[in-house]
Amino acid sequence: IRRNGQLKDNFKIISRNVKMATDLGELLVPYMPTIRVPRTGDRVFKSECAFSYDSPESEGGLYVCLNSFLGFGREHVERHYRKTGQSVYMHLKRHVKEKATGAAGGAIPRRRNGKVFLDLELNRDFNGGDYEYEDEAKLVIFPDHFEIPLPNIEELPALVTIACDAILNAPSPYKKQESDSWEEEIQVSKHARSLTQQENGVRIPPSGWKCAKCEMRENLWLNLTDGSVLCGKWFFDGSGGNGHALEHYKKTNFPLAVKLDTVTPDGADVYSFDEEEAVLDPHISEHLLHFGIDMLQMQRTENGHHTDNHVQPRVSDWEVIQEAGLKLKPVYGSGYTGIKNLANSCYLSTTMQVLFSIPEFQRAYVGNLQRIFDYSPLDPTQDFNTQMAKLGHGLLSGQYSKPPMKSELIEQVMKEDYKQQQRGISPKMFKALVSKGHPEFSSNRQQDAHEFLLHLINLVERNSSGSENPSDVFRFLVEERVQCCQTQKVRYTQRVDYLMQLPVPLEAASNREELIAYESKRKEAEENMRPPPEPVRARIPFTACLQAFTEPENVPDFWSSALQAKSAGVNTFLFVIYKIAFKNLFFLCATDVSVDVPDFLDLNRLRATGLQAGEEELPDLTPPIVIPEDTRGENLLTTPEIDESSVMQLAEMGFPLEACRKAVYYTGNMGAEMAFNWIIAHMEEPDFAEPLAVPTYMEPDLPSPSLPTTSALDNQPPEESISILTSMGFPRHHTIQALKATNNNLERALDWIFTHPDCEDESEAMSDTADTEPNNNSFSNANDLSSYELFAFISHMGASTMSGHYVCHIKKEGRWLIYNDHKVCLSERPPKDLGYMYFYRRLSSC
After folding, report:
1. DSSP labels for 167-203?
2. Among 64, 115, 120, 238, which one is least packed by beta carbons within 10 Å?
3. 735 vs 406, 722, 728, 760, 769, CA distance in Å?
4. What's one GO BP annotation on this UniProt entry (predicted)?
C-alpha cells in the first residue's frame, strides 16, 4: 500500500505486510457499498475529464470514480469527492516516450501492460512508429490518497477486481450514440492496403466519361485495379445503369471501384464488390493518381437535382482559403488552442472558435467557471453550461496550447515534423451533448455551420434562465414595411433575428464579360466532351449585396386590410441596429463568388425609421381563411356563409353558440373536426363567446391600431419585448415605461428611450447600469450604433455546405489568425472575399 499526502508529491511507502490480502480487504471494507460494477447502459469516461481536457496522457493522469464512472483530472477530483463523498477512484496514467533503437537503427517494438487500456483511444500524435507507451493503473482512496497498484487480483476483494476489470475494458461512452445514428459506420476495406494496380497506361480524363460497354453517362464507377469505367446497377426508380461494373468484377475479381462523380479533395465513395458494402480506402489518393486523377484538383459540381458527371479543377478554393503553400507560423498560448477534427466536425470547431473570441461568451462561461463547476449537477457531462465552460476554458486558458521545448523544437525541425506539436483539444463530450437528439448533428456527416450556430444559440438561450445570455450580442430587430399599392397605406412589423442573410446578385458582377466568355467555353467543352475551362469566379461588390437585400419586392397574394381584398403589395426590410453578425449566402454548388467584404462597415442607411410623416397605416384586421371566388371585385357580405350543421354539432358538445359559429367560419367550413381544434386553441381568449363580427371596408370609423387604449397602457408589456431592450443595456423599469408609452412597439420604445434620457427617477439606475455594462453595450450616442468592424469570418470549401471543409479566420490583438482544426497559425493572406459567414463587432463610442 502506498500513501500520498499531496497529489503533486512523490508517493511514500508506508507499509509492506506479508498478509497483503488481509490488509487490502480490511482497507476497502468501509467503501464496498459505494463500489459498483458497470452494467449495460452505464457510460465509463476513462479517456476525458468531465471538467477539463485532461486524459490518462496528461501529467496528472485521470481519476475514474468507481461509483459514477465519471473521469476527473487532478485539479477536479477533489471537488467530486467533496460533493459526493465517493472515496474510491481508479487512477489511469499513460507514459509516452520514444522507442529505443536497435543496433541497426530500427525501433524496437515494445508495449508494456498493453491490455490495461484495451479500448482507450490513443492520441493520434503518439500513434506513430517512433513512440511507445507504458500504462499504469492503481486505486486511490480519498481523502488520504492511499494507493493500491493494479493488478492485485489475488489480494483485492472479488467485487473490486470485477469492477476494475470492467472499467478497463469498457467501450467508449460515445460509441452507443454513434451507433444510434441511422448511418452505418464505414470500415476500411481489407483490400485497400494490398491492392495491386495494373501498369496498363490507362489515364482517366477529368470529364466526358461514359460506360465502356454502353452509352451510360451517369452512375459510373472506376475499377481501381485496371482503370475500367463502367456503369453501376439499375435502381427501381429507373436511374442507375446496366450493372456492367458488377459483371466486370465477376469476370476479373478486381474488388474495389470508386464512383467518379464523388471524387473531391476530401474523399470519394468506394465500394468493395468482394465485401459487398461501401468501404474506406486510406490510400484512395494514390490509387486514383495511378490513373491520372489528382484528388486535390477535383471538385464535384451539381446540375439541378442530379449530379452532373463532370469534375472541375478548383485548386484555388482549397489552397487560397487554407493558405496552403505559405509557411505559416504556429502560435501558442491563451486563445490559440486548436480543436481536433472528430470526423467532419469542422463546422462545430470553427463556430466555437469564433464564439469564444467574443467577450460576452468569455465572461458568461469562462469568467464564471468556478461558480458553474461548483453548482454543476452530479452528472456534469449532461449539463450544457458546464460543458460550455469546459470548452471555453480549454480554448482560452493556454493549458492545451504550449510551445515545444527547445530540445523538442530542434528535433522536430530535423524531422520536418514541426506541425505535429499542435495537438488541440478533442471536444467529444461537448459534441455528444449539443447534438443529442438532433438527427443531423448527432451523425458523423458534415453539416452547415450556419445551421449549427442557430442551433447553439437556441441552446444558449434555453440554458441562460436567470443569468446572463451571451447570445444577446447577436440579437437585433428587423422592421418590415409592407405597402398596399392601391391605397398606398402601410404596415410596419418587427421581429427578432440573429443573422443577416445577404443575397449575392450575380448580375452585379464587375467581370460580367469574363463570366459570359467562360460560360460559352464551358458549354462548348461539354458538347464536345472535352475538359472544361478553368472556372472564373464572379466578383461582386459588397454594396451590391446590401442593395439587393433592401430592394422592395412584390408580395404574392397580398391581402389588403384597407380593401378587404387581394391587392398588389411590396415589402422592404430595415433594421433597428444593435450588434449584428452577418451571414453571406453563397451558392457554392453553382459558381465561385468573390465579395469584397470591407473591414469597416457603416449601416446607418439600413436604420429602421418606423411610420413616417404622411404615411397612413393599414387597419389591423385579420383576413378570413377562405375568401369566396364569387366575391372578387365585390363587397364582402357582412353576414358570412357558415355551415350550420357543423355549428350545431359543436354546440351539442356544450360550447357557446357564437364560439361555434366563429370556429366554423375561421376554419373555412372545413367540418366539425377542424372547427373543434380551433375551439380548443382559442377557448381561453376573453372574446371567445362574443358574436362573430366580420368587418368590411364599407364600415365607417375603422379602428386604428396606432391609437392606444387605456387597457393596453395599463397592462404589463410582453416579457420578450422587455428582455430585448434590457439586453441592450437599458434598465428594466425604463424599458417598461417606454413600452407602455408606445403601446408595446419596440422600435418606438427605443426612440422614446433616446428622447427621454433625463427622467428624474431613472438617472440613478442608468448610472448603475453604466458601471456594470461594457462600453460596447452603451447606447449613449445613437450615431455610434451603425459602425462595425470585421473581427472573424468562416470560410467553406466544397460542393455544398453539407460537405467539404470549414476553416475560420479571427482577428486578435490586431493580427489575423487562421484556425484550421487543431492548427492555429498567423495568417499571411486572409481570404476575406471567400468567406461564408462574416462576424462584425460594433465599434464602441469614442
Report:
1. HHTPPPTTHHHHHHSSSPPPPBPTTTTT-----S---
2. 238
3. 58, 6, 10, 15, 13
4. proteolysis
> Tens of pLDDT along 745-803?
776 677 677 666 545 344 343 344 334 333 333 333 334 457 888 999 999 887 677 77
Query: CA of 21: how far to CAs of 158, 212, 797, in Å?
Result: 11, 75, 62
Q: Which of 222, 288, 267 is nearest to 249 (CA)?
A: 222
Rounded CA-CA distance 74/50 in Å is: 11
Tell me: the pLDDT tens digits for 104-144?
444 433 444 444 453 455 444 444 445 677 889 999 999 98
Residue 376 Cα to chain centre, angstroms: 24
Q: Are 56 and 117 in contact, with CB atoms under 8 Å apart?
A: yes
Residue of 76, 310, 805, 809 with catalytic role? 805
Residue 157 has φ and ψ, to the nearest 5°, of -60, 155
Q: Which of 49, 65, 164, 346 is catalytic?
A: 346
CA distance 839 to 716: 35
The DSSP H or E segment spanning 136 is strand 131-141
Identify whether 756 is a catalytic site residue: no
The residue assigned the cell 459498483 is 36
746 compared with 440, residue with greater pLDDT: 440
Low-confidence winner among 138-152, 604-618, 708-722, 819-833 (lowest mean pLDDT)? 708-722
User: By C-alpha distance, which of 510, 563, 560 is closest to 537?
Assistant: 510
Cβ pair 482, 558 in contact under 8 A: yes
Confidence of residue 589 (pLDDT cuts 50, 70, 90): very low
For 18-43, b/e burial (b = at least 16 CB within 10 A) is eebeebbeeebeebeeebbebeeeeb
Predicted pLDDT of residue 111: 42
Residues 6+ apart with CB under 8 A from 665: 624, 640, 642, 692, 694
Whether the per-residue pLDDT at 13 is higher than 70: the answer is: no
Dihedral over alpha carbons 286, 288, 294, 299 (to 10 degrees): -130
Residue 837 has φ and ψ, to the nearest 5°, of: -130, 130
So what's the pLDDT on residue 775? 35
For the chain, percent of residues with pLDDT exceeding 70: 73
| Euclidean distance between CA atoms 804 and 509, whole angstroms | 26
C-alpha torsion angle, residues 29, 33, 36, 41 (rounded to 10): 180
Binding site listing for Zn(2+): 211, 214, 231, 244
Rounded CA-CA distance 472/564 in Å is 39
80 is known as an active-site residue? no
